[in-house]
Design goal:
Elements: E1 39-45, E2 48-53, E3 58-63, E4 66-70, H1 81-90, H2 102-114, H3 130-136, H4 142-155, H5 157-173, H6 177-189, H7 194-214, H8 220-227, H9 233-243, H10 248-270, H11 275-284, H12 286-298, H13 309-317
Antiparallel strand pairs: 1-4, 2-3
Length: about 325
């Protein structure tokens, strides 16, 4: 007797919520683009269901809630209300407090030009006795150069030249011919050596000639004539700056800076001293320049005097030095 046949079970179908398209059917695939949000505050997207229907099929896409954070690139500041205010403050304003007046701009421009190393007064050819001091061993490095120049500036020719400049500027401003003649004669006689006389008188003559040729102004010729003779360098700077209505404090600070810079330039070629070392010496002398300028502005002609005997001796002995690069 044959075995009984068992019933064949019916296949079970797994429910598929998404109907797949038949082969060969063109299906529209939705594209979702995400724009990065540059912020430090978390942005939470809500669940979204997108239904895309086409002739061939229908697709259902569910967006899952997501926490999106995008780090700020390094160096990019956080944008807030203060940024706009800072930008407004940084923007230049016409006629605002950031601008200087026409007279101040002209004074600054002329001082920077007249007392620049590029102004052709021949300052590069003089060392004020530094060349002999280097050969004698008094100056051997940046430290000894700074000490030497600090003394020359505060107790020697730097201070004296500042006093003479200040009094020449005031006399020229007041149109006091008698005072101008007295100051010019005293300044020419106060130089301690023949080479220093050549240095300061040559620079003074060149300064006046070039400044008058390029920036001539009313009253300068009469002021020069009132001096009645040779005009040394500090007196020349005082006369010209006064004729152009340049304030005395700015003039004397710029003058002393130019003198010190020329001394350092000579020392850098003689030691020798590199560019970085030269700037370090100049930076170390900044407070000395400021203090000397303040003393010179408050000094009278009776306060003139020098306590740098070694520097004066160097300028005297330089003229008989065997080998020389400089004229003083």
């Amino acid at each position: 007797m044959p075995a009984p046949r068992m019933p064949t079970p019916k296949p079970t179908r797994t429910p598929n919520p998404i109907r797949m398209p038949k082969p060969g059917t063109i299906m529209a695939i939705p594209v979702i683009t995400m724009t990065p949000v540059i912020t430090m505050t978390p942005v939470i997207t809500t669940m979204t269901t997108i239904i895309t229907t086409s002739i061939a099929s229908t697709s259902i896409i569910t967006a899952i809630p997501m926490l999106m954070t995008t780090n700020r690139p390094p160096g990019v500041p956080r944008r807030n209300k203060a940024v706009g205010a800072a930008n407004k403050l940084a923007a230049p304003t016409v006629g605002g407090s950031d601008n200087i007046g026409e007279n101040e701009a002209a004074a600054l421009y002329r001082l920077m030009t007249w007392l620049s190393p590029a102004f052709p007064v021949g300052a590069f050819s003089y060392s004020s006795g530094i060349e002999w001091a280097v050969e004698a061993g008094d100056i051997a490095d940046a430290g000894s150069l700074a000490d030497w120049l600090s003394s020359m500036l505060a107790q020697g020719s730097g201070f004296c030249d500042g006093v003479l400049l200040a009094h020449a500027h005031r006399a020229a401003t007041a149109r006091d011919a008698a005072a101008l003649r007295e100051i010019a004669e005293l300044a020419a006689a106060f130089v301690p050596s023949r080479e220093r006389q050549l240095e300061t008188s040559g620079q003074g003559r060149a300064f006046i000639e070039i400044a008058r040729a390029a920036w001539n102004c009313d009253g300068l010729d009469e002021t020069m004539a009132a001096c009645g003779g040779a005009i040394v360098y500090p007196v020349a700077v005082g006369l010209v700056s006064a004729a152009h209505d340049i304030p005395l404090p700015a003039t004397i600070h710029a003058f002393l800076h130019a003198v010190v810079s020329n001394w350092i330039s000579a020392g850098s070629r003689l030691i020798p001293l590199g560019q970085t070392g030269s700037q370090r010496v100049l930076a170390s002398l900044e407070p000395v320049v400021a203090a000397t300028a303040g003393r010179a502005l408050a000094a009278s002609l009776d306060d003139l005097g020098s306590a740098t005997f070694r520097a004066d001796l160097a300028s005297l002995r330089h003229e008989t030095q065997y080998t020389r690069l400089f004229r003083s």
